[in-house]
Amino acid sequence: MATRQRETLNDLLATARAKRNAMPEDPEQAAAEAGRAADEAAARAGRLTTAIDRMTALRTEAADAQATATRATTAAHTLAARAVTDAGTVLDALEAVATDIAARRGELERRTREAADEEQELTAAIGEAQRQGEGRDDLIKAALILQTFAADAAENRHERDRLAALTAELADEGDAIAKDEAELKQHAERIEPFADQIRAATKTSDRIRVLAATARTDTGLALSAAGRVADTAISCDAATGKRASLAGDLGRLEEEATATEQGVTNAEARRNFLQLRDRAAALAAELHPGDDCLVCRQQVPADFEPASATDAAELAAAKAELDAANATHRQARDRLAQGCADVTSAEQAVRERDKEHQDAQAKAQEATAAAAASFLALAALAGETPLPFDAEAAAKALTVATTAVATSTTDSAIRPAPDTAAITDAITACEQAASQHAEQLTAEGHCRTATIKADRKTLDERKISHQRTSTQATADATRHTRAVAKTATHASTLPARIRALLPGEAIDVTADQATAATEAVTARRTEVESLHTRRETYRTEKTAILADQRALDREADSGLERPLNDLRGTLNTWAEAADQANTHLAPADQHDTPQPPTESRIADIRQYATDLTAITTALGDQLAQLSTLSTDRATAAHNSLEEHAAALADIEAFDSATDLTTPEALHPLVAARTTAANQADEQRRRQREAQDLIKPAADLTYAINAGHARHDALEILRRELVDAKFLGHLTMLRTRALLGVASDLLGQMSDGRFGFADTFEIVSRDSGVVHHPNRLSGGEKFLASLALALALAELHARSGPSLGSLFLDEGFAALDTTTLDTALEVLRAQAGNDRLVMVISHLHAVAEAVDDVLWVERTATGSSARWLTPAERDALVQADVTSGLQALAR
Hints:
By secondary structure, this protein is mainly alpha-helical. It is built from 16 helices and seven strands.
């Protein structure tokens, strides 16, 4: 084995040397040289960037200065063109027009005031007449009222007399109707006892009809319930037979499952045997004469011949046989499980059918009792009719019929119907007798009430006629009252001086009195109309004056306001040109532009023009000076630009004599800067590649040297693997692995305080001191033992089949609360790895941390054990906590 590893190591060393030869001899020196080249290229690129930026700035400065000079010259020309030179002449002409218009407007205002005063006096007189109720509309309304006033009063007096006579006639007719109605009431009271007898007979007939229907329904329900008893009895027998059949099949399925399980055991034993034989042959094939046997540790003799390995076909056949046996066993178990389920279902079905049969018997008894009760109720009510009902005979007949149906063993589809004709016939006869008795009494009652109804109809017609006449009389009286009130209302709307000419009651007005009032109204209307005519004359005059004022306003607008506005607009344009020219100056040299006047007064506009003339002169001088200075700056920038271009004559493809103000002039410089930057990036990339190879080269050199050392060690190992020295080495490795896992677990459970040394002694991790386990406390010793036990289980699971269960007996009592929680947390982690952890303890706190608790108690006859429910476990822990708190309180 050592020989094979040495050969493999030689191949790896050859591959490593080939990779190292492909790298630079000194990657660090190569990286330094690439860095220096990158710095030189970066410096060249920086020089070109600085030159390009400066030349671009000079070119921008020259263009800006030239543009400033052009703008200043253009602004000066614009300002001179917008100046208004004849503003004073225009304002002198407009001032004379304004004086004439003002004099004419004053005359029109005087005439307007005089007309308004006259109109106000006439309006006050008209208003006073309206307040006295003698306005134009009021007098027209009064004339219309007086036209029909006398006729309306005469008509109201005639209607008053007619209504008085009609009221007396209606009173006499009402007394006669009341007398006849009292006599008819006495006749109706004599027939009332007979009507009660009819109603009682009808009610009895209706109740018998209802009870008869109930009796028929209850009889049908009783027979149906008896049929249900027979059906459930048949179903119960069928379910019992099916259960017996399935129980017999279950025994055969259990025998079949046992046989297939034995077949699996035999096939697995055969496969394990072949695998062990094959493994032994593989171990023997690696042994040579003179080596130590791995099993018996004896030296292999010189004539040793290893046994041949198991045939692959034979092993495959054994595995196939095991797979087939497992499949057959699974099928048998599935059939057995299905059989058990079928038997369980059959037993459940038997219980359900038996319960259904018992329920059906109870319902049949209830239905029969209900039918018998219906028979008794019908018999009790039939005693009030000519034909009684025998409830006892009907109940016996029903009992015979239900017994026959309930004990029948035939299917419900072919079961003969029971004979209940005697019951139904007796019920029908009782029902018909009660109905005939009620009909006879009803016919007699109809004859007696017919006469009373005829008399009642005649009386009702008289009452309706009397009511109709009374209603009409009431309506006529209401209309009469409203007419009288309307006439009085009209009279109250008349002017006061007109009402004084009429009587106090409007219904008493005569034709002569109405004529006199009409003449007084006509005279007053003539006076009021005169006032209105004079007021309209003055209003017409005011309208004419208003038209003259509007004509004067139009004349002022066209001859004065519009020319002034035009002049203001021209001056504002001049002021805007001054504002625009002002923006070309420095903030310290700028002037305050005069503001336009808020109103179109000639004096304000004249001052506005004077201020604009003064600022225009100052701005023209400053703009000329700014243009000269900007032209000089542009010339200086061009000269500096040519000097920078001459300093870059060594740049390839750059012509310093070309026009440097064009965008294409600096393209050769930009291209040269890009080339230098690319060269710098390329050298930086080479520098990074060389730097990235420094560590891999060193690692390969180190690996090659280590490989040579391992090669020498393998050579020594090949010579040393004799006389069972290798077994001691394996034991040492397994011991170190055990102590490593146990040390980690002990550290978890002791909060990082303790661990294991290589000699199974204890290490205090805080100080690094190693000491004997006897110096630990009882609880700490338990944690150390638990860590070793769990480490053994973990190593066993890594090298072979995992331990399915782990048992721990006591030991937790010596732990404090924190350490106990930590230890239980480690145990929960072990249980989470598909491993059963069984803890034997008397501490109730342990019960809280485990999934299932088996409670063991000592009794007088021995020990008893039972599984605690989650609620019982929580109560146990809670009681422990409560007792602890009480102990602390004491």
